[in-house]
Structures are given as structure tokens and as C-alpha cells.
Design brief:
Layout (H helix, E strand, L loop, with lengths): L10 E7 L2 H12 L7 E6 L5 H12 L13 E4 L8 E5 L7 H5 L3 H4 L4 E5 L12 E8 L9 E8 L14
Parallel strand pairs: 2-5, 2-6, 4-5
Antiparallel strand pairs: 1-7, 3-4, 6-7
Length: 170
């Protein structure tokens, strides 16, 4: 009798980002690793840089439209200007109903052909897919002008088990 396969450790890398431009550049580099069907979950305090990172993703993916926070519209679709996938940018901050409310956005329909980025998605979108990239951004809180961010990227599921996230630190 064969022993069950050991679970794979998730792909993970940690970075220190010192400015909004570096956060945007991280997004541009991360875009090179993404493909249609990828779910990226962003979490971090208000002002941590989630939308700045997503702006860089949009630039790296070559999508149409300025990437801004979708807080009041909940979700924005940015079509590709080339042959890449569109970017679906979701802000789940105001959604309290978990996956039920998220289902109203039809993300499960968008996911196979898009890169879906969800800010504040913890506890709300994990059921969409077992494969996801979780990005946690920590910053100093309180009355500070500190621009330093500690970013942890963790790839979960089969899609990410052989991903080399260390290339993002280059």
C-alpha cells in the first residue's frame, strides 16, 4: 500500500518595498507570472499599497483603463489591449455576505479567462478556487510617513506548487 503524498509547502517569498514606485514595479513583475484563471488575494491595512500593486499589475498585463480603487463600484473589468487576459479588480471591503454576495459579481464566470485581483477578500473568495496567490502587505500604522512595506506572497494549490516566486525579488 502506497503512502499518501505529503502536502507540498506553499510557494512563498517575502519582500521589503520602500516606496509606492517599488510597489508598482512589483506589480509589473508579478504580472509576468500571472495567466488567465489566476486569483490574487490582496490584504493589508488601509493605505498599505494594494491598489498601487494592482495598478502595476494592470500595466504589466497591458490592460485598458486607469486602475483605481473599486471601493464604491465593487468591481472593475480592464480589458486587455493585446492578447493577454483581462484584469478584474474587486474591492470586497464593503461586502459582508461572504461568497453569497461575491457570487452576485459572477467572479466564477470571469475567473477562467481573466486575472482576478480581490482586495479584502479573506474569508470571502477562497471557495472560488483552490489555486490562489495570497499577497499580504504590512506597513507601520499610526501617524507615520514610513513608506516601508513588508510583502509576503504565498502561492496555494497545484497552480503555484512549482512557481518560483523568488524571481520577484530581482
Amino acid at each position: 500500500m502506497e503512502a499518501p503524498a505529503a502536502p507540498h509547502d506553499p510557494a512563498e517569498t517575502q519582500l521589503i518595498i520602500n516606496s509606492p514606485e517599488q510597489m508598482r514595479d512589483l506589480g509589473r513583475r508579478l504580472a509576468k507570472l500571472l495567466r488567465a484563471g489566476d486569483l490574487v488575494m490582496l490584504s493589508g491595512e488601509l493605505g498599505a499599497g494594494k491598489t498601487t500593486l494592482t495598478r502595476g499589475l494592470g500595466e504589466g498585463l497591458g490592460v485598458r483603463g486607469a486602475v483605481t480603487s473599486p471601493t464604491f463600484v465593487i468591481a472593475r473589468v480592464h480589458p486587455s489591449l493585446g492578447d493577454g487576459p483581462p484584469l478584474v479588480h474587486v474591492d470586497a471591503y464593503r461586502l459582508a455576505g461572504g461568497l453569497d454576495e461575491m457570487e452576485d459579481l459572477d467572479l466564477d464566470v470571469s475567473l477562467p479567462e481573466s486575472v482576478v485581483v480581490v482586495e479584502w477578500g479573506d474569508g470571502k473568495v477562497e471557495e472560488l478556487t483552490d489555486d490562489r496567490l495570497q499577497v499580504v502587505i504590512h506597513r507601520a500604522v499610526g501617524d507615520t510617513t514610513d513608506e516601508v512595506r513588508h510583502v509576503t506572497l504565498t502561492g496555494l494549490g497545484e497552480r503555484w506548487e512549482n512557481a518560483n516566486l523568488d524571481v520577484l525579488s530581482a
